[in-house]
Write a structure and sequence with these properties.
The complex is a heterotetramer, with two copies of chain A and two copies of chain B. In chain A, strand 7, helix 8 and strand 8 form a beta-alpha-beta unit. Helices cover 37% and strands 22% of the residues of chain A. Chain A folds into two domains: 192 residues, Thiamin diphosphate (ThDP)-binding fold, Pyr/PP domains (Rossmann fold, 3-Layer(aba) Sandwich); 128 residues, Rossmann fold, CATH 3.40.50. Chain A is built from 13 helices and 15 strands. Chain B has one domain: Rossmann fold, CATH 3.40.50. The chains are: A alpha/beta, B alpha/beta. Chains A and C meet through helix 3 and helix 12 of A and loops of C. Bound molecules: thiamine diphosphate (2 copies) and magnesium ion (2 copies). Chains B, C: Pfam families: E1_dh (PF00676). Chains B, C: It catalyses: N(6)-[(R)-lipoyl]-L-lysyl-[protein] + pyruvate + H(+) = N(6)-[(R)-S(8)-acetyldihydrolipoyl]-L-lysyl-[protein] + CO2. Chains B, C: It is an enzyme of class 1 (oxidoreductase).
Chain lengths: 333, 321, 321, 333
């Protein structure tokens, strides 16, 4: 807790608690809102996020589903059409592959196919990402796929403030919003403003200002990017760290503005390097600010391998603060 | 919508659907309609009967073979034809085409070109009505082919488990494109399969509009009363090919002819004549009326404007106002 | 693999599985095993009975709760523990961990962490055997939760339609994580649902290894004879939580205790003692043997090397030779 | 047919026929090969590609499936594990979303998860792409998604020679290969070498050499790129056109080599611009050949809209030869 003269302005909380507070507030604020998904109720959520909400709000508002990803995501879409505000949890992004038809062919297209008559005010929460030795079928980073699809909004909270506040903003959106929650961050803590609430979803954020090089991350890659900035600072290099926050629509303006000052760019995510979301960030810079770049772009992502189970290999497969710092130094060499 | 005791209304509707579909076939050959076009000639009794059993606040979810459903729901011919011509006045502003007819006012939620893709959606509409304590029922239409899809299975379980107010209406026309029922399904008794989810499920003569309407009315009442979903296997046949691309090489002439003997329009017309409710020239008059309606609709649709290219990327997400 | 008339072998195997699982729990708490860990304590009769009914050329497809299946298939404890320790000598070279145990030689095709994800795969293995005219059968193991997934439904239809040599073995332990059968399934008689695909399907006491073996043998014979797939609902219970993360807040103590009364090891041991096939110290001796085997296996696995980091991206596609 | 002294060396054929010949040859050459999918048999394939093959090879070799994308793709994976060489057709890429779990979570991971013990020699044919007014649920361009996934190979025939020859090469691959067939090209014709056969899948191809600007396309964007090159030539601009052919593994060397000569880059595909496969091509150039670029990169893709039905809007949503040529001229301005 940070104490200032006027009383505490922030308190320390975990991502898990921050997400839960967001859910609790949403359920309390609007009776059209309900939460459905596998084991969100009785079990308390696979990762404990919704623990206690069933008792608090009852089984109509917090509803366990069978193992039927396509049906319950589709049911969320239909329920959204029907005037409610469902929050659907897909337990892990790999299982979202079973619901992609509904998300891409239906949720993302209905407004357009109906000529603007229909809208799908649906929020889908998707725990995602590597880092817990869950191996090749539970560690994917696929938010970039969803960010490719017109009609969807994709947000990726990387701070407890965003974890706490993005849900309210997402629920206010008349279109489908996917919230990707980093599994590896649930237990991590951060400082939450006591006066927290909805946050904007439109802009990337400069999480650390700097002069020499721009490091872009989001979700699971923000923390190592910030750590890399510390390492760099120790060596006299001032890195600016940008958190994309929302992958679609992508706020490339903030990135471009930063690059225009630093002239050097390192991008980092946990997706496989080829075709990952950072390719888009780099492409936009190459289109719109090529002349600003004084060095080749450095791009870091996961090694091109289905994630292996053992810790030493999983760690080697993912970007680390060390390697990010080294990449930043290469742009300055 | 139709009075339960109004078979003449059912006949009128079926004639309108038949004439509409035949006009579409011609318009497609002429290049005025493009993309994929799936007609429901032969299956009119399902469209007329199912939709007649619904109230205006009930919801409908359909497939790419949905012209009949859309007409039966009351969407004007002009709006449908303008849609297929890609005009701004189309029921989906021309963005959807034949496979994506929508009408939010009439709770007609499409028009879905993914086989079985509408079933989860329909389940969700029913969930919303139940959640909001509204006494509405959702009618979900799909084909026999959809019964093989996982989305069908997941949705039926969910709907039965949660006792949602939904009626699953399977238009069993015995083929999924070129694949017959017996080559798609290990168990071809589709009602039996739906019954394994613990919901009421039965087969209905889908060539008899009155029977379809009665069965649907019973199913809708059951669902509305809170007794959970029902499943209707509406046994029918498409007289034409799967789509305008299809050379229809996979069906026997004799089979088609046998089903044509059971033409739902001929049958109902004959009954009405026998009952003295339709006179000799009655059917021709209905056809003439439908044709006149069509002529006017085609003309209006043809005269309608296209959406400006400048609006290309509209209706993707909500526009800031 | 086991002689059909060798209940002592079944008991020995179940004891090995039980001791193995309990050792894993300890190793997990100690941080030696990581990731997700799902134990099958209580369900040993299914593993022992099903696998005992297969021949060495038959194929096995399993889930993330597969240690028992792997042991019953004959994979050495060392290879399994080394895998969970992430060592190069593991049965998947350490790449897979607890949820992804493989052994191509033994036709043990994993270890799948997607609920129902192995069912289409198993169907394909059976298809290949049929296509190549090989007299093999595939045993496909999955849980009750998987029965709600579309992939289950699609695969059962396909297997029944094509009369493939496959036995679907549903380990019905009454829970999918924290969700009980009745909160997952509108119709909780799972054999009835499988039967709706026109395949032989019946329920079996999954706490009785001999009964499981006999039922599986019958199903395997049926499938091997070309009479199409069978479905076995093996009624069992897990005595421990879903995974090591699970606080098990959703089950009644009384329910757990009641099922523990039916412990498959206790039951078979009692029968064997009554039949004079096991003496008073017999079970303790089996446990001691299993523990000794485990001690050696843990030591060997701990001593085994890790894969070099330089090999990180190997085994993704075939390496040019 | 092109006639030379020694007899005809090429003959004119459609993509549809070229694909069919590839299938026929594969079925004839190896009795482990079979074709399964919806309506591939009796109906002859939704787009007529497999017409006649059922009669020729019988129902064990050409097998219709129920509408069960996940099951029959998964069955193909299992059958490949079981020693056969299945070719699975998914009728249109949008329906492939229903099988993504099997493709991404299983086919792409089995070799790795099993520590190299297992392989999945499976070929999946996927008709894809816009251009026929099939609207928002039948016109997607998603090959870039698959190209993101380690363990898969993704090929995109854009010439009749590749249409004819890629299948044999794909079947020889011990790992899963996805062949994306452009629906809009099935009826188009090209010149096929009479002595056609397997083609390499490892290298991109320079389809038209040039000096001033590199235009990169593949699949459905190759034809407009070549047409654009004609337009440019008329104006005295010499464009080099590169056909990527294989999206994974991506042969960026051929692109880089071209850019090193032309110093200007235009990339074109039919995918939505943001996060499409061309972002990766641009990112690689920005990483590896930034200094070679004398102008901002021009990237063209589909408008960010679920494709609308009417012809005028569908056309406006897609890159055209005119617009590609204009983009190329901008790089030279
Ligand atoms: C998921 C999916 N797979 C395949 C198709 C291609 N397709 C369109 S209609 C159709 C046949 C569907 O048959 P059925 O459900 O019986 O409906 P019918 O056309 O007979 O009315 C197929 C295979 C599709 N649109 N969606
Ligand atoms: C497709 C999918 N959805 C969700 C999960 C998360 N999950 C893992 S195990 C499990 C429960 C499965 O229950 P059941 O099939 O009965 O098997 P059991 O664990 O009881 O052996 C769930 C929900 C998953 N792994 N895959
Ligand atoms: Mg049909
Ligand atoms: Mg279970």
């Amino acid at each position: 807790m940070t104490i200032t003269a006027g009383g505490p302005t922030t308190r320390t909380t975990t991502f898990r608690e921050a997400f839960r507070e967001g859910l609790r507030e949403a359920l309390a604020a609007d009776d059209r809102v309900f939460l459905i998904g596998e084991d969100v109720g009785r079990y308390g959520g696979c990762f404990g996020v919704s623990q206690g909400l069933l008792d608090e709000f009852g089984p109509d508002r917090v509803q366990d589903t069978p193992l039927s990803e396509s049906a319950f995501v589709g049911a969320g879409i239909g329920a959204a059409l029907g005037g409610t505000r469902p929050i659907v949890e897909i337990m892990t992004v790999n299982f979202a592959l079973l619901a992609l038809d509904q998300i891409v062919n239906t949720a993302a297209t209905l407004r357009h196919m109906s000529g603007g008559q229909l809208g799908v005010p649906l929020v889908i929460r998707i725990p995602t990402g590597p880092g817990r030795q869950l191996a090749a079928q539970h560690s994917h980073t696929l938010e970039g796929w969803f960010a490719h699809v017109p009609g969807l909004r994709v947000v990726t909270p990387a701070t407890v403030t965003d974890a706490r506040g993005m849900l309210a903003t997402a629920l206010a959106d008349p279109d489908p919003v996917l919230v990707f929650e980093q599994i590896a961050l649930y237990g991590a803590s951060g400082e939450l403003p006591v006066a927290g609430g909805a946050v904007d979803l439109d802009r990337a954020a400069v999480r650390r200002p700097g002069r020499d090089v721009t490091v872009v991350g989001y979700g699971g890659s923000l923390a190592p990017a910030l750590e890399a900035a510390d390492l760099l600072a120790a060596g006299g290099v001032s890195a600016e760290v940008v958190d994309l926050r929302t992958l679609r629509p992508l706020d490339s303006a903030t990135v471009l503005e930063s690059v225009t000052r630093t002239h050097r760019l390192v991008v980092v995510d946990n997706a496989w390097r080829s075709g990952g979301p950072m390719a888009e960030v780099v492409a936009r810079v190459a289109e719109e600010a090529l002349d600003e770049l004084d060095a080749a772009v450095e791009r870091m992502g996961a090694a091109e391998v289905p994630l292996p189970y053992p810790r030493h290999l999983e760690e080697a497969a993912l970007p680390s603060a060390d390697r990010i710092a080294a990449a930043a130094r290469r742009t300055l060499a | 919508m139709t009075d339960p005791r109004d078979p003449l209304a059912l006949l009128t509707l079926m004639v309108r659907i038949r004439r509409f579909e035949e006009r579409c076939a011609g318009l497609y050959s002429a290049g005025a309609i493009r993309g994929f076009l799936h007609l429901c000639v032969g299956e009119e009794a399902v469209a007329a009967g199912v939709l007649a059993a619904l109230g205006p606040d009930d919801a409908v979810v359909s497939t790419y073979r949905e012209h009949g459903h859309a007409l039966a729901r009351g969407i004007p011919m002009t709006a449908l034809l303008a849609e297929m011509f890609g005009r701004a006045t189309g029921c989906s502003r021309g963005r959807g085409g034949s496979m994506h007819l929508f009408d939010a006012e009439r709770r007609f939620y499409g028009g879905n070109a993914i086989v079985a893709g509408g079933i989860p959606l329909a389940t969700g509409l029913a969930l919303a009505d139940r959640y909001r304590n509204r006494p509405h029922v959702t009618a979900c239409l799909f084909g026999d082919g959809a019964v093989a899809e996982g989305e069908f299975h997941e949705s039926l379980n969910l709907a039965a488990l949660w006792r949602l107010p939904i009626v699953f209406c399977c238009e069993n026309n015995r083929y999924a494109m070129g694949t017959s029922l017996a080559r798609s399904h290990a168990e071809t008794d589709l009602a039996l399969r739906a019954g394994s989810y613990g919901m009421r499920a039965w087969a209905v003569d889908g060539m008899d509009a009155v029977a379809v309407q009665e069965a649907t009315a019973l199913a809708v009442d059951t669902a509305r009363a809170g007794a959970g979903p029902c499943f209707l296997e509406l046994q029918t046949y498409r007289f034409r090919a799967h789509s305008m691309y299809d050379a229809d090489r996979y069906r026997d002439r004799a089979e088609i002819d046998a089903w044509r003997q059971r033409d739902p329009i001929d049958r109902l017309a004959a009954t009405l004549v026998a009952d003295g409710l339709l006179d000799a020239g009655g059917r021709a008059a209905l056809e003439a009326a439908a044709d006149a309606e069509l002529d006017a609709a085609v003309a209006a649709a043809e005269a309608a404007p296209l959406e400006p290219v400048a609006d290309l990327t509209r209706y993707v997400t909500t526009e800031a106002s």
